[in-house]
Amino acid sequence: GGKNAVRIVKGSTTFYVEFDPADPAYLSIADNRTVVRLEAKRGTVESAVLVTNHGNYTMKLQVWWDFGEVWRTEAPFEEMKYYILINSPDGERFAVLNTSDNPFFSFDGVDRFPQLGWVSNGITYQIFPDRFNNGNKSNDVLALDHDELILNQVNPGQPILSNWSDPITPLHCCHQYFGGDIKGITEKLDYLQSLGVTIIYLNPISLSGSAHGYDTYDYYRLDPKFGTEEELREFLNEAHKRGIRVIFDFVPNHCGIGNPAFLDVWKKGNESPYWDWFFIKQWPFKLGDGNAYVGWWGFGSLPKLNTSNPEVREYLIGAAVHWIKFGFDGIRVDVPNEVLDPETFFPELREAVKEEKPDAYLVGEIWTLSPEWVKGDRFDSLMNYALGRDILLNYAKGLLSGESAMKLMGRYYASYGENVVAMGFNLVDSHDTSRVLTDLGGGSLGDTPSDESIQRLKLLSTLLYTLPGTPVTFQGDERGLLGDKGHYDEQRYPIQWDKANKDVLNHYRALAELRRGTPALRSSAIRFYTAEGGMMAFFRGHNNEVLVVANSWKKSASLELPQGEWKVIWPEDYSPSDPLSGTIEVPPISVIILERG
Ligand code: ARE
Ligand code: CA
């Protein structure tokens, strides 16, 4: 381990590269290859080669940004001894060596952080169960009707049970129920298949006191408003039969006030065996009083759990393992950055889950660029808002030029292991944000989006489907839905199944087909080509066999194609269809995808 930074100062120039074989950003196994990368100051490397005991591999400039760049190569995945040789532009030679006594690093791949192929190859769809589809009217109950939930009296306002197309009320985000359930999802599996979906991310389904479910009352119990365990089992079986895996939402940072441990503390104070599970500031207290105990962001409805306490850990991690045993395929973890003692809690969670199901997928809800969370001991991936929102959305809006977007992407790709990138949970929006079409200027719920906003949605979703990692669609985006978070979380409004923007729906179906038919788009490998004005272009695939060209500005751009002959594979109606070489025109607000040959 340890950072192996080579720093050589010569005259007035500083030569500086970074390489650390213990860090997946520099050395990882992706798509069954050994990927070796080094980071250098921009423009300080002329060429580099990976020297190994079974041959030399030329490194190529992969991605760059203002001050830095990454050089990358891949070797077959097998045991190897290696070092790296570098030529600087002024003709000097440097080497990245293990030690001067023993120049060779050795790599055997044992215990490396594995990539999950089903994630890299997958298309993901996020479902917010209360608002997706109502498959069983008999379980449409108000939270108040569950006897565990009498405590909902402390919730702001009376919960309401609405009909599927009733208008939004101020309780919409949290206590306006619409009756969506697990059975309703099972009924829509054919629909999801028609979108190429192979992974479903389900928002919380454990017993809770809200429509969103983040205030867990019982981690081990399915909320009866979502159905019975038999219905859940049937859903998982039907999904698995269709090659669809399902990940659930797990909330270890805080529970809800109806949680039995919390109620016991409320009743007995420090006589309760659960006293140390929470952070009580004053007792007795009124349930829901955010000043009496620590709650998530001060909310009295979300008492914070003491995850330093081994009993709490056993309870929580036990619940995660319980649902994995039940048949789920992975876990999305809520606010991991706020959980106490994350450096031991998450490795424990990971070990317990992976022991039960080695290829279970663990995704952390971290909004920012945070490589420390994905080094192999915690998460496989993070919710990639940092890529989807902070970079791609702003690019698709036309706010970032092609070059600026690309440089930001360069930082992103440099920060993570290629295996991590290939397991990326690539989303733009979710139940926590406005809908992407709204962000792109389409308006709010009920409006008619402009043609330009639809065109920008197509640009953005196409980019998402061409990048390494799994593209994630928030339920309804594929139907052209609108929803402004600032207006009572409109993005959570139920899908009205009798309405859809057919053009957008066909687009999402075509994207799934494109990705299915183009393995390079599902590979781990990406390499920048060029950027100018509103345009950016990058290669995909281990032989740079696909070129993705985007233009987010309102005027067309022209691109000089890389050497060789290319044919257009997207959009399908692009003409001419003959092989191209030389320069091509890239229409305003569009993506063109080309393949060699
Ligand atoms: C609800 C409304 C809010 C309202 C609040 C108070 O939605 O609009 O302000 O009530 O009345 C759950 C529910 C929410 C609910 C919340 C509290 O889903 O509907 O709020 O509980 O009752 C940050 C966190 C991130 C968090 C988001 C929401 O970092 O982890 O805020 N996401 C998770 C879940 C949520 C869930 C919770 C946490 C709590 O996914 O659904 O909320 O369990 C920036 C920052 C981000 C920030 C983001 C959004 O970009 O970088 O850190 O996320 O904005 O604010
Ligand atoms: Ca129902």
Can you describe this structure?
By secondary structure, this protein is an alpha/beta fold. It folds into four domains: 4-112, Immunoglobulin-like; 122-252 and 308-519, Alpha-Beta Barrel (TIM Barrel); 254-306, Oligo-1,6-glucosidase, Domain 2 (Oligo-1,6-glucosidase, domain 2, Alpha-Beta Complex), CATH 3.90.400; 524-596, Golgi alpha-mannosidase II (Immunoglobulin-like, Sandwich). The strands form six sheets. Strands 1, 2, 3, 4, 5, 6, 7, 8, 9 and 10 form a ten-stranded antiparallel beta sheet that branches. A hairpin with a 2-residue loop joins strand 23 and strand 24 (535-540). The radius of gyration is 25 Å and the shape is globular. The two termini are 43 Å apart. The model has no long low-confidence stretch (mean pLDDT 94). The structure holds acarbose derived pentasaccharide and calcium ion (CA). Residues 134, 136-137, 139-140, 179, 181 line the site of calcium ion (CA).
Keywords:
597 residues; alpha/beta; Immunoglobulin-like; TIM Barrel; Oligo-1,6-glucosidase, domain 2; 10-stranded antiparallel beta sheet; 8-stranded parallel beta sheet; 13 helices; binds acarbose derived pentasaccharide; binds calcium ion
Q: How much of the sequence is in beta strands?
A: 25-35%
CATH superfamily of the largest domain: Glycosidases
CATH topology of the largest domain: TIM Barrel
Number of helices: 13
**Class based on secondary structure composition and strand pairing:** alpha/beta
Question: How many structural domains are formed by the residues?
Answer: 4
Distance between the termini: 43 Å
Write the CATH architecture name of the largest domain.
Alpha-Beta Barrel
CATH class of the largest domain: Alpha Beta
Ligand kinds: acarbose derived pentasaccharide, calcium ion
- Enumerate the spans where pLDDT stays under 50 for 5 or more consecutive residues: none
Mean pLDDT: 94
Identify the overall geometry.
globular
Q: Roughly what percent helix?
A: 10-25%
Number of distinct beta strands: 29
Radius of gyration from the CA trace?
25 Å
Q: For the report, how would you describe the main beta sheet? A: 10 strands, antiparallel
